[in-house]
Amino acid sequence: MIAQKKELVARGNADLESERKRAERLAANASNLRQLLAGLAAAREKAEAETRKKAADAAAAARRLEEEKRLPKIAFAQAKGQLNLPAKGQILRRFGDPDGLGGKSQGLVISTRKGAQVTAPADGQVEFAGAFRSYGKVVILNPGSGYRILLAGLEEVTAATGERLRAGEPVGLMGDGPSSVTLLGDVVQNGEPVLYIEFRNSTEAIDSGPWWTAANKEARG
Description:
By secondary structure, the chain is of the alpha+beta class. It has helices spanning 2-29, 33-70; strands at 90-93, 108-111, 117-119, 124-131, 137-144, 147-154, 156-157, 164-165, 170-173, 194-201, 204-206. The chain contains 2 helices and 11 strands; from the N terminus they run H-H-E-E-E-E-E-E-E-E-E-E-E. The strands form 2 sheets. Strands 1, 2, 4, 5, 6, 8, 10 and 11 form an 8-stranded antiparallel β-sheet that branches.
């Protein structure tokens, strides 16, 4: 602490000495008082601009460092078999199962407990958080490598668009009953909330099954 104080004092003294010499040079080159005052004003403006730039550069560097800390620890494509489901529950429908609407399910459907907390299954940035058409309240997470993770059927979204999350951090809460999300078709499980999970590679829905840990493949909580 003492050493830091001494360093700050020495730096302050050096700045003062530099400013004194700059003022003396301006005075020596000025032919009248107006020129001296104008020179001093210009020098002060330049010094303040340099100070602002240094502060902005330092803030930008700090932001970059923080963003680097939040980058995914491993590439999403290499995380197969390592992800935990965003909420505990029972799997009601898997990728490719009949969706109750005459087609095939594009994602994973699980029933959860009432008011269950939903978490990010992987590191990534929230690209969208809020209500979207027939999907209800959703969170779209970008885990990198061209992938997207969609979580739909939430009662409340707590994540914010643009936020960077680590796997396991909360993104929202489930409600007290079945979601009104139309893409869930006829899925109802004892009146429990239902969470829809969809993985996409670019714009194509893909099977999320290979990404879940062995303990989560049955998703029973």
